[in-house]
Specification:
single chain; about 350 residues; mainly alpha
Length: about 350
């Protein structure tokens, strides 16, 4: 990894953001769990003495508790997203992937927007809870001490990293020029491969998280748990891991047949997510989990983009990029191996060949 003032600032900012966000989101999770417990206590006080609770009262209780569990799930997803972004940030710097660095900034802003939407969801949940149990109105979520600081930190760090990105773009762009050469077509091919690999990394996190969340949601519904959709989704969740390994291997080998197989099989997760989306939209507006629906739509878009870039990469096979790269996937843009670093660099990485680099001016 090439160290500079901007790489250090970029990584330090990401570490600080992750550390603070984990603390705040952990507090938010605790607060929301306390709110759920407080609601159940007040519900018990108001309706516990009644021997004949109507179905409406019981349904109200179930819906409110389920929705709060969903909100807690969102908090955990935001927390895990920040942990993933820390890895994603370091990986981008380590591989000098400018496209990935720009994506880090965009995802940071997106998480900040999602955190802001959660404030609306929390107040919406409270309004529904008060309709069910009037005594719950005294509970104070104090979003100004929880969600608001988290949003400010996310947006502030995203803005700072956006400035650092411009500096890193200039630095890494020069490094790519030195290793790939002045051939613009080769640089374009190289950049396409970087974007495809970046999509695979994003897919590995967001699509797996989506798949696991969907499994949890489906398993909570006894009717859905016994349907073919549930077991099909479980199989697809495992398949995503297999397809990730297949894509990396076929990319390294520039295998036309292997990449075509990947593209064909990748349609299966897309079909699964579309089925989940239809099932989610089919519920009533009151019972809909909008965060989950948005997450599914995002997963479908990412999966489609992965197919598009896999086709682009497939068309670039056998056009000369492979001779610039050594075997492995990890460090696509890593600087040439020198005598000093050759003993410490792990094998099986993608790196620009120092020997090939000398053929360019």
């Amino acid at each position: 990894m090439v160290e500079s003032k901007w790489t250090r600032l970029f990584i330090i900012t990401s570490i600080v953001q992750t550390f603070i966000t984990i603390i705040i989101q952990s507090l938010v999770v605790g607060r929301n769990q306390s709110a759920s417990s407080f609601f159940l206590d007040k519900w018990q006080e108001q309706y516990g003495g009644l021997h004949n609770n109507t179905s409406t009262i019981l349904e109200c209780k179930t819906n409110i508790v389920t929705r709060m569990y969903n909100i807690v799930g969102e908090n955990i997803i935001i927390l895990l997203s920040n942990v993933f972004l820390l890895f994603f940030c370091y990986d981008a710097i380590f591989n000098q992937n400018t496209i990935q660095i720009i994506t880090v900034v965009i995802v940071n802003y997106a998480i900040g927007i999602v955190a802001a939407i959660q404030i609306v969801e929390v107040y919406r949940w409270k309004a529904q809870a008060v309709e069910c149990v009037s005594a719950f109105s005294v509970f104070n979520f104090r979003v100004q001490f929880y969600e608001v600081p988290s949003i400010v930190i996310l947006l502030l760090c995203a803005t700072m990293m956006g400035f650092f990105t411009w500096k890193l773009y200039q630095q890494f762009g020069w490094n790519i020029y030195k290793r790939i050469g002045a051939d613009r077509n080769m640089q374009k091919i190289f950049r396409s491969m970087l974007i495809f690999v970046m999509h695979l990394k994003l897919d590995l996190f967001f699509m797996v998280v989506l798949s696991v969340v969907a499994c949890v949601v489906l398993s909570q519904n006894d009717k859905l748990k016994s349907t073919p959709l549930y077991w099909f989704h479980v199989i697809v969740t495992v398949l995503i891991f297999i397809l990730q390994g297949l894509a990396y291997h076929m990319l390294r080998e520039e295998s036309h047949l292997g990449m075509k197989i990947f593209i064909g099989l990748w349609l299966i997760p897309i079909a699964d997510f579309i089925a989940l989306l239809i099932k989610s939209i089919g519920t009533s507006a009151q019972d809909s989990w909008y965060f989950f629906i948005i997450f599914i739509v995002f997963g479908i878009i990412m999966a489609l983009l992965t197919i598009i870039w896999s086709i682009i990469v497939l068309n670039n096979f056998d056009k000369g990029l492979k001779r610039h790269l050594t075997t492995g996937i990890g460090n696509i843009q890593r600087p040439p191996i020198t005598e000093q670093t050759s003993q410490t660099q792990p094998p099986g990485r993608w790196a620009i060949d120092d020997e090939d680099d000398q053929t360019y001016p």
